[in-house]
Amino acid sequence: MARIIVVTSGKGGVGKTTTSAAIAMGLAKKGHKTAVIDFDVGLRNLDLIMGCERRVVYDFVNVINGEATLNQALIKDKHCDKLFILPASQTRDKDALTQEGVGKVLDDLSKDFKYIVCDSPAGIEKGAHLAMYFADDAFVVTNPEVSSVRDSDRMLGLLSSKSRRAEQNEEPIKEYLLLSRYAPDRVKLGDMLSVDDVQDILSLHLLGVIPESKSVLTASNSGVPVILDEKSDAGQAYADIVSRYLGEERPHRFIDEKKGLFGKLFGGK
Amino acid sequence: MSTDSQNTPHTASVLEFKSSTFSVPVLVLSNNDLKAIEQQLQQKIQLAPEFFKNSPIVFDLQELNKQEVEIDITSLANVIRKSGLVPIGIRGGNEEQIQTALALQIPVYSIHNSLSSDTPKQKKNVPLTASEQKIENSTTLITQPIRSGQRIYAAGDLIVMAQVSAGAEIMAEGNIHIYNTLRGRALAGVQGNPDARIFCFDLQAELISIAGNYKISEDINDSTRNRPVQIYLQEHTLFIKDIREH
Asked: Shortest CA distance to B23 belongs to which of B133, B117, B106, B137?
């Protein structure tokens, strides 16, 4: 049985798709057969971030409607043969997703894959609901600012009440906090909430802090998940997160301002 | 009779039967000692003289008849009337008692709809404490964080061990205890109980309310913010006090 991970946030633009791509790649690089699904029907992005937009033939909605098989729709990643992408449809909307259809696709994938990463759309409506409904684990991506934290809190409420596990009285979804676009120097100035502030409000297990980094934008535009950029701080942060999720001990980094020459070269924005 | 028909020559309807349900106290007797009954009746009435003044009452003889204890219906009706109550029915009587009651123009109620109603009978005898009992009997305990957008309603007291997030709303007919941070809204005594209180470990609430009297975040004094407090109502004013003060 596969472990189903939803990457969610409530708020848009906080880094869900970047995170989904990085996490899925990280798990696959560790040798686990991983599928990553784009639930943002109508606003397809994951294929761009993963650099496979030119190879999309069939999509998630085609599979749900029985117009294509899973094997036809899954795209094998060019960097790692353990990673497969199921793109969203760009020409449809969220109503094309049904709970039954999504459940069947996840069931079928579960037979073959170790991890299934669901990239949730923003909001709390149907697309986001179906992305998290079948999840075992939830990565809640939050930016260190109040509205993002509030939306994450709302999403956590839905995870604990509107998911399959909640409805069937099973063990609740395991929730992890991923704090993205973190800038220690701005926290110091008081412009940004600190890790402690966010944890105090959400009282959630911190899986990792991803620093604000130019390398994320570069990676997105070139269609290579940022985790493959091993020299970048964001890439290292995601590698740490994957390792921690798999049970390895890794000290938290990127929380404090960098010091010394290295810090001067790579610190700041 | 003839004058009546002259006054109303037309055939328009002057009356209508409607079904209506009333809540009437039932006096359940377990002893035939009329002196003791009178005395204890007086004691009960003194607890709430206004409530019992001219109150209709049904007396229930089921217990007595189970014990095969005889009671004089005429004297009993007199004792009840003397106490300021109006007997309007008899229930659970034997054939002889029913005949006596009918002769005294006291209607007879059947027992079948109240066979399993021991508790309601007790409640009707002491109507003033009924709401308190309910609160004592049902406490809701929550150990998970209450997140933004979630609503909790407790019919009695509510105890929350985890935090209550901003944008969450918790309501209780009784007291609210929060052994963590309160950032959302907390409404105690929502059915109008002014004696309900809110206790919380760290007050950062958006809104607090007891029996409809509320304070919003802006009205909460900085001296009580981020502190363990209790909130109670006194003459329609909410007081927020350090939990260690009495």
From this structure: B117
Among candidates B145, B167, B168 on the partner chain, residue whose Cβ is nearest the Cβ of A203: B145
Mutate to test the interface with A, among B142, B147, B164, B183 (most CBs of A within 10 A): B147
pLDDT at residue B19, rounded to an integer: 67
CB-based contact A254:A238 (threshold 8 Å): no
**Which sequence spans correspond to the domains of chain B?**
26-109, 138-242
- Asked if residue A142 lies in contact with residue A148, where contact means CB atoms within 8 angstroms, the answer is yes
B149 close to A (CB below 8 A): yes
Please determine, for residue B127, whether its predicted confidence score (pLDDT) is greater than 50: no
DSSP assignment string, A201-258: HH--EEEEEEE--HHHHHHHHHT--GGG-TTSHHHHHHHHHHHHHTT------SSSPP
Q: Are A119 and A36 in contact (CB under 8 A)?
A: yes
Has this prediction a pTM greater than 0.80?
no
A166 to each of A7, A169, B25, how far by Cα in Å? 18, 5, 45
DSSP conformational letter for B188:
E
Res B40 pLDDT > 90: no
Q: Would you tell me how many other CB atoms lie within 10 Å of the CB of residue B122?
A: 14
Q: What is the CATH number of domain B138-242?
A: 2.160.20.70
CA angle centred on A222, ends A216 and A224, rounded to 5°: 70
Query: Shortest CA distance to A35 belongs to which of A106, A125, A98?
Result: A106
Q: CA–CA separation, A9 vs A178, rounded Å? A: 10
Cα–Cα distance, A47 to A21 (Å, whole number): 9
From A157, A200, A201, residue closest to B150, measured CB to CB: A157
Q: How open is the CA angle B33-B39-B43, to the nearest 5 degrees?
A: 140
Residue type present at position A98 = T
The owner of tokens 């002196």 is B35
Q: CA–CA separation, B184 vs B217, rounded Å?
A: 10
* Closest to A143 in 3D by CA, of A209, A225, A234: A209
Model confidence at B238, pLDDT cuts 50, 70, 90, reads: very high
Task: Give the residue from chain A lying closest to B166, CA to CA.
Answer: A150
Calpha distance B152→A96 (Å, rounded): 33
Domain B26-109 belongs to what topology? Answer: Alpha-Beta Plaits (3.30.70)
